[in-house]
Amino acid sequence: MTHNPKYIFVTGGVTSSLGKGIISASLAKLLQARGYTVTIQKFDPYINVDPGTLNPYEHGECYVTEDGAETDLDLGHYERFLNVATSQANNVTTGRIYQSVIDKEREGAYLGKTVQVIPHITDEIKRRMKLLGDSGQYEIIITELGGTVGDIESLPYIEAVRQLKWELKPEDCIVIHLTLLPYLATAHELKTKPTQHSVKMLLESGVQPDVLVCRAEHPINKDIKKKIALFCNVTPSSVIEALDLPTIYDVPMAMLKEKLDKTVLSKLKLSAKNEPDMDSWLNFLTRHKNPKHEVKIGLVGKYVELPDAYKSIAEAFVHAGANRECKVRLEYIHSELITDENAHHKLGHLDGVLVAPGFGDRGIDGKIAAVKFVREHKIPFFGICLGMQTCVIEFARNVMGLKDAHSTEMNAKTKNPVIDMMPDQKKITAKGGTMRLGAYTCEITKDSKAYKAYEKTRVTERHRHRYEFNGKYTKDFEAKGMYVTGVNPDTKLAEIVEIKDHPYFVGVQFHPEYKSTVLTPHPLFVKFVKAAIEYSNS
Ligand code: GLN
Q1: How far is the CA of 491 from the centre of ligand 1 (A)?
Q2: Is the bond leading into 119 cis (omega within 30 degrees of zero)?
Q3: Is 293 a catalytic residue?
Q4: Among 164, 359, 467, 493, which is least packed, fewest CB within 10 Å?
């Protein structure tokens, strides 16, 4: 228990997409490796209550926590770096803030006062910013503010940070500002003016940043650091260089070299005695960078134009690949472009195929064609959520002869609804946060590939779906060779299906990718990569 939590706020300037999430996660990793208990939270300035209703094209993948929150994909980075689960409290949006304030207003909690952005919205922001600190579980709380300083919608957040900085002792609350130093090739020069301007913009809101992390394509020399320090009111050691790196997993080591963690600890008046223990991290990096094998895995999905839509899956392959000392080359394949006729051309060169999660019927026929091809050609297959549902449909149609088999999500009138809506979902009409979400237990049959991977019979995995394997067909599937090898012990819903007579054919109703981290690669991904290596060698 700690009663004096320290707050670090991370803001962004100059442009979006500078990687605040990775910088926050890297700093958190270093502080954790020095023995501090750390958590990270993200405040997003959009009005959606959560990103669950956002199209993946808009915002990338929707990440799901153990407690069933649909969150920003940065929470995935936090978990992958820290190996600690996050929760609903770790992601807050403007929509959620307003929703609480408006609910309170309707309850009459403001006693006739005019409800305003300041103080009511900012008070609610501050309350939520301190929630994880107040829990007593953490010594350090890093808060990433989404958006870019200067955005109209970020203003209440910056104001809340200003107030917290005023309320708390200077050593209990610091601000890290992440900016960009653009490189002008013709002048061979890194330019500091945009950084100066974005710090000025923060100052206009009354916030003096304590540390500047500067993204740059070229090293930032001492003179530039000094110049930035002088014009932005910080010490030269508080100007941190953040170069582009081959992988996001290099960033913690780069920040260690730049002493970001030490600088932060000294500002927070915390001891930096213990050097960070990064042995297991370095071990991961070594395996990741020195692969002995290489495989090509196809990721079949309909959001492939934006790889961020499948962020956690891509990262799970990095973790599993490092574990198997294997370079996994992911090939994103648009499901709408696959047919029975061209499947050989599209997939024949691959060592494994993953059919991705998704919603709606666009691209479903291509997914079915992909499953048919890899099932028949005994290419390792891994189906996740809709990918699992697809392999069930394909098997029903092409092995069991139920030609019209489908999911009622795609065809409500099918005579053979092998995938059907869960009964408790049928009454629900609202869209946000109403799916089956979060962690549920799965019991695994011993004689299965899943058991070989997990080496245990009881696991919990995260969910995000409305439809399910229809238990009425279990016996018919098993009679033809597709087995239910994982079930939810309470509801008896199917969690895992497998074909035994195949090197690796596993479909899971849950999302294993959300639980894969650098230090704990997911066993099903590890076994899938292993199967792909064996396939490529055969
Ligand atoms: N659309 C399917 C369902 O709702 C699968 C969801 C998913 O892949 N996450 O059940």
Answers
A1: 18
A2: yes
A3: no
A4: 359
* 433-452 per-position pLDDT tens digit: 788 999 999 999 999 999 99
> Three-class SS of residue 488?
coil
State the distance from the centre of ligand 1 to the C-alpha of 468, rounded, in angstroms: 9
pTM greater than 0.90? yes
CB contact at 8 A, 363 and 370 = no
Q: Which of 124, 258, 495, 513 is catalytic?
A: 513
| Residues with Cβ within 8 Å of residue 15, at least 6 apart in sequence | 148, 180
Would you say 366 and 337 are in contact if contact means Cβ atoms under 8 Å apart?
yes
Range list of H helices, 290-421: 311-323, 343-347, 364-376, 386-398
Q: What is the pLDDT of residues 302-360, one digit of tens each?
A: 999 998 999 999 999 999 999 999 999 999 999 999 999 999 999 999 999 999 999 99
Taking residue 122's Cβ as centre, other Cβ atoms within 10 Å add up to 22
Distances (CA, A) of 339 to 11, 210, 334, 348, 403: 46, 56, 11, 13, 17
- The 10s digit of each residue's pLDDT in 61-89 is 999 999 999 999 999 999 999 999 999 99
